[in-house]
Design a protein that fits this description.
single chain, 320 residues, mainly alpha, MetI-like fold, 14 helices, 2 strands
Amino acid sequence: MTGPTPDKAVDLAERRPGPTARTRSRVRRGGRRGSRLIGWLFVLPALAFYVVFVLRPITLTFQYSLYTWNGIGPSTWAGAGNYLKVFTDPDLFQSILNAVKLIVFFSAIPVLLGLAIASAIRRVAASRLALVARTVIFLPQVIPLVAAGIAWSWLLSSTGVINQVLTAVGLGGVTRAWLGDFSTALPAVGVIGAWVLLGLCTLLLLAGMSKIDPALYEAARLDGAGPLREFVSITLPSLRQEIAVCVTVTVIAALASFDIIYISTQGGPGNATMVPGLEIYYLAFSERQVGVASALAVVLMVLVIAVALPIQWLTRDRSS
């Protein structure tokens, strides 16, 4: 018995039904499901760390804030009493106001000075002076904040270099213990924070300026624009995202400041430089008021979010 001829075999192969659309759809769905599963497996370790070391502590802090507890013995329900104390106790509320005042020094000054310095460095980018300037300005970022706080405490003391220079130029009448005077302690701490954050803001803004098309500046010069017009019309609009990052980071640093103040003033004189981070530390570990400390920590977290989110919204790129 003979089999089908070659022509008939080809005809049968062409008429043989292939995979249906439903089968192909199942295969695609299975492939997407497998890819999604593999993606979750990669994300799972980071997600587990985030849940254990971020979400869980936040949840426990909120739980502790609803109780009166000394950290060791039994706790009693306090409800919103701890939060009420945060806003009615003058010392606790003053610490929040001090942190808000530090935003001027920690955020406004570094960002504005960073813009000016970055613009100046960009104009001499090809010279060795620009490299030296970037290194010197970024140096505070690599110095431990504890060492920076100690060094500035020496500089701003009553016999420090600052007062010696003022005396040498005939301004001995304004010398004082800058970190020990009620009227100058908070601004002095703010100057230290501005010095620390200036390098970070300058380099971020300088990196943003390096991405701006030089043709834009050339076109502006051909139209007769001066340096100020170039800065306002080209540089600032192009640095929207970089400025947003600088402002967000520096505002959070001001509201959550701890180490510089702890080293330089420890919240003194009196409570002139007391900030929420330092107040939380004292309440929890010195006064054993874990509930109040947790309530202040929750208020601080909400304050940071309430300040950071509008900044991100106002400075986001609306062109896309």
